[in-house]
Write a structure and sequence with these properties.
This protein is of the alpha+beta class and 247 residues long. The protein is 58% helix and 17% strand. A hairpin with a 4-residue loop joins β4 and β5.
């Protein structure tokens, strides 16, 4: 009888434990399944985060990503940068496409339009050697007149640069120290042509927008072009006077 009672007690205990285990699975099954499948937790938590807009509701990367995507702050509020854009004579000479041409600086509002406009400036004027555009400065390389050893007329490339803060410089090739040139005059002309645009930009932002870069490029180009024409005209007039004197 003693053994029978022990056996009966063991059976009852085993059945009770099995029943309790079944209850445990039923009572905590959702948590157990959740803990076993982290992807499910991530999706559910992500949905909750999306609805409330709270990033703290998520404990893993999935929900954080879903919340950020739903909020849309990353794509909408991100600052769009323009540049840098570098275009040389070889670039436009090898490009035969004319689609999407932008011929006016006032039509520029995007980086793509700025690039198209700059390409047009280089392609339309053979005296332009290159253009460099960034959010902090605009540079244009342009042919200018100089006199080697003070009397031999030559052409050299002068690169005018206007920064967002208004600083204006004109650089010449290293060998230009052997020649006389109108560096001060060219710099003053570029500075005068761009002063209004630089002042307007200083009131709005420390960086140059695509529209501002296009406007500065247009003004620098006009100033450099005007200086070259004035130099050649003065030279032609001097020759004409010299010829008249000889006669």
């Amino acid at each position: 009888m003693k053994y029978i009672g022990t056996i009966a007690f063991s059976l009852v205990f085993a059945l009770s434990a099995t029943f309790a285990l079944a209850l445990g699975v039923d009572g905590y099954g959702s948590t157990g399944a959740s803990a076993g499948t982290n992807g499910t937790i991530g999706v559910d938590a992500g949905a909750s985060a999306n609805a409330s807009g709270s990033m703290e509701a998520s404990g893993d990367g999935t929900s954080s990503g879903a919340s950020a995507e739903a909020n849309g702050n990353v794509g909408i509020n991100a600052e769009v940068n323009v540049g840098p854009i570098s275009i040389g004579r070889a670039d436009v000479d090898s490009d035969t496409t004319v689609e999407g041409a932008v011929t006016s600086a006032s039509s520029v509002s995007t980086g793509a339009e700025l690039s198209a406009y700059a390409s047009g400036v280089v392609k339309a004027d053979e005296n332009v050697s290159d253009v460099e555009l960034t959010e902090t400065a605009v540079s244009l390389g342009y042919k200018q007149r100089a006199r080697l050893f003070g009397f031999v007329p030559i052409f050299v490339r002068a690169t005018a640069t206007v920064k967002a803060n208004g600083e204006t410089t004109v650089r010449y090739p290293w060998y230009a120290f052997l020649a006389t040139k109108d560096s001060a005059l060219v710099t003053a002309s570029v500075k005068t042509a761009t002063s209004a645009t630089v002042a307007a930009n200083a009131e709005a932002s420390a960086k140059l927008s695509a529209a501002m870069q296009a406007r500065l490029l247009e003004q620098i180009h006009a100033a450099m072009q005007s200086n070259l024409k004035a130099s050649l005209m003065a030279e032609a007039n001097a020759k004409a006077k010299a010829g008249a004197t000889v006669q």
